[in-house]
Every structure is written in structure tokens, then in C-alpha cells.
Amino acid sequence: MGEIKEGKVSGLIPRNEGFAVHYPGYPSSTSRAIQTLGGTESILKARSSQSNTLELYFRPEDPYSHPVSGELRSCHSMLLKITKKKKSSPINDAKQETDEFHADIVARIPEAYYFEGMADYEHVVPVHADVGRKRWKNCKKPGLMDLGPDDVMMLPPPLFSLKDVPENIVLRPPSTSSSRKKQDELPETHPKMTFEPALGIDFKDVEEIPKEINWKEFITEGTPMWEWQMVVSKLFEEQPIWPKYSLIERLLDKNLKFTYQTLKRLLLTVGYYFSGGPFQKFWIRKGYDPRKDPDSRRYQSIGFRVPPELKSYCDANTAKGLKHRWEDLCKFRFFPYRNQYSFQVYELDDDYIQQEIQKPSKQTSCIYETGWLSPHVHYSLRLCVKVRFLSLYPETGAEKFLKAASEKFMKSKRLCIYKDAPKPVQEEHQQTNEDHETFKNNEASENQVDVEVDELESDDGEEELDTWNGFGW
């Protein structure tokens, strides 16, 4: 322990490290300060998270209290333990006591939390905090609350400000670098080129589709926007219907990565999509209506949903940020990391699937549930996809699901043969009558799952493109 002389102390710097909290006030005790920071568990949680912020509630007993945030910054400080000793010294035969201060370097402080922002304006209802907590608990209970005539309505107010540090944003002069960056990110706009509403088209009720436009008249040739639009247009000339992930992967293979606004404008220039049906959320070339073309059955969607008992594997890998290439999933090389996918029949690398979609369609119209494919063929293709993916599950637990799906798949294949066979052959296959009943029950169950999944997807918003962050991965 070194003595403090003239504001200086000497000693050995230990290897122990810690962190500091520059508390914006004078708490009554250390325990009270820790309580306003959420307790030891909240502090440890903030230390282990990636947010670099620590929340402080001046009234932790009040559930409506707004927090102030402390920002974690690096520093070069040390934690000192200071002690005061009284020293007696004889002066003129009289003892005089003086104070000596000593300091011990406990730990190094490489980072600390600084509360430099302002507290948000807050209206506090003049009721006791304990009463407020009881009302807060009652709000979480289902049903109506019993409120007396003298009860004060507790409505948590919204935040009045999204920022806690004032900024001069009105009179700030624009900088050259930020302006140039902003111009590079914004797509080239053309007032004369109009677009239809960027919402999904109803598959059943809307008969007229968006018409093709000549975008070359409105975009300057030789500009980056011209080159990007040309690449996207060629993809739609190559194939009239594209799944979102397949289209994005093709653009990435061409070393093209756009911002959200640019990608949205590129797609809306040449394409549209249906909000439901067999081509749900697939981008379709303007001027092309797959409901009138039986050959569009090869571009229909086939869904795969991971059984709920196996979702823990997907959630664990998704949390790690792992993902597969779309091409690898279409070739059945890996088990998916997401719980649900909509694949395009044309892209699936399976002999049975490709053989079925090459057969001429017997449907006279494109129906909402199965498109140009007959219900029994559509059901059989879905079972085929399910069997292929369940056979790739890398852990234990999928055996019973694989066995059940394989049995259903074999029955559905026999039913497809029975449906396509001439009448004399049908009489020789009496067993298929039982398979037909089983198929109808299974199809009803699978379709019910599809309806639930579609409803969940529609809850995310009719315009799925708005949920993309960059490319939406």
C-alpha cells in the first residue's frame, strides 16, 4: 500500500480487471444503486450481451418508469482502495494528530459505463408505487379488472423522444462525404415511369395483371441503374417466375448486392407477385399470367414444414447464424435450418418430381390450392419432398416421421398410378380404394396445415418485400 503524496500514489499494477459505472446521481447506498441498475442479474446480463448499454431506473418500484441508458466505453483507469490513518507527532512537547492517506491499487478498469444522456420526460401519476405494481400485475391477467370508483387509471405514456442527446439537425450543413454516400445508395428515380401498387395481387379475385413496361425509355443507358435493371430483366427472360431466395442467390453469384430501396425498385420494374395460391410470394414477370398457362405448373411452389418435434435443431442453427445455399437445398444436400420453406417444383433435383411435372396437365383450370397439378399429384410431390429432407436429418428423432412419410408417399404413388391407369387395370387394383380414402384424409390434414401456415405468412404483412433487410436473409 503506497502513501498518497501531492495527489500521487505509487505501487504495482495488478492483473485483475473490472468495470466501472459512472452513476448519474448520489444514491443512498451501494445496494440502492445496484437495485436501480436492475440488480446483479441485470448487470451481468448487460455485460454478456452485445448491446453495450446498461439501463438505469431511478424508480425501480414503479413499473411505468422510463430508463436512462449508459454507454460502454473504453478507458484507462484504476480502482483504488483509500484508507485514512491518524498520525501523532510531538510538537513543542504536545502531541498533534495529522491524517495520512494511503491507497492500494485493487484492479485495472479498461471500460466503464457513462450516463451522458437526458432522462425522457415522464408524467408520474400520484399514487403509491405498491398500488402501481398491483395494477400492473392485474393488467397481465386475462379478463376484466375490478376497478373501484376512486381508482386512478394507469396508462403507461409513450416515449416523448427517441434520442437522449440533443442534436442540431435543423441547421447542420450537409457534408460532402455523407451526401455522396447517400446519392450512391438511392436508386435513380424517374417521375414518368409509373408503377402499380407494390402489394400482392389476389389470386382469385383480380383478373388483370400488371402490364409490361418499356423501362429503357426512362433509364439512362450506361448508368449503373441501367446495367442492374438489364441483369434482372434477363433473369426474367430466362425464367418467368422466380422464388425470392433463388433470385437473390443468382444476383449474388453475379457479385451484385443492392440496398433495400434499389432491389425493390428493380423487381417492381419488371415483376409482380400473388399474395396467395400456388405461386404465393414468387416474383412473376409483368405481362405473364401463370393462371392461363398450363406449362407454368413447373414453376409452382411446394412447401416443406419441419415437424414441431425437430424444430429445436433448426432454432439452434439459426441462432448461430448458419444458413445453406438455395441450390444445396434444392438438390437435397442438407437438412434445412429454417422451419419452413416454399420451393419451386422446377428447381428440385428429384427424378420422381421432374417426371411428374413433365406429364401434361389434366386440370382444366388453375385452382388456388394446387394450381395446374391435380390434388393427388400435388400431395404426392409434397410427400416426396418431405421424405427426402427427413432422410437427411443429422440427429436422432426423425425415424418415426420418416417412416410415416415414406408409407404415405408409397400409397400416394400407387394412387397416382391408379388415377392415370385405364379402367381394366383399375379393376385389378382393388386395394387402391383403401389408399384413396387414406389419401383424402391425409390431404385434408395437410391442406389444413397449409392454411394455417399461409395465415401466419399473411400476418407478416401483405408486402413481404418491406420486411427485407438488404437481401432479406
From TrEMBL:
Keyword DNA-binding in the entry? The reply is yes
Instruction: Give me the stretches of Acidic residues compositional bias.
Output: 449-466
The main place the protein resides is nucleus
Basic and acidic residues biased stretches = 181-191, 424-440
Q: Does the keyword Lipid metabolism apply?
A: no
**Where's it found, cell-wise?**
Nucleus
Task: Write out the GO cellular component annotations.
Answer: nucleus; transcription factor TFIIIC complex
Q: Where is this region: Disordered?
A: 171-191, 424-473
Q: Which GO terms describe its biological process?
A: transcription initiation at RNA polymerase III promoter
Record GO terms (molecular function): DNA binding
Q: Which Pfam families match?
A: Tau95, Tau95_N
What does the UniProt keyword field contain?
Answer: DNA-binding, Nucleus, Transcription
Which part of the chain is the Transcription factor IIIC subunit 5 HTH domain? 154-305
Residue stretches making up the Transcription factor IIIC subunit Tfc1/Sfc1 triple barrel domain? 20-123
Please state what the protein is called. Transcription factor IIIC subunit 5 HTH domain-containing protein
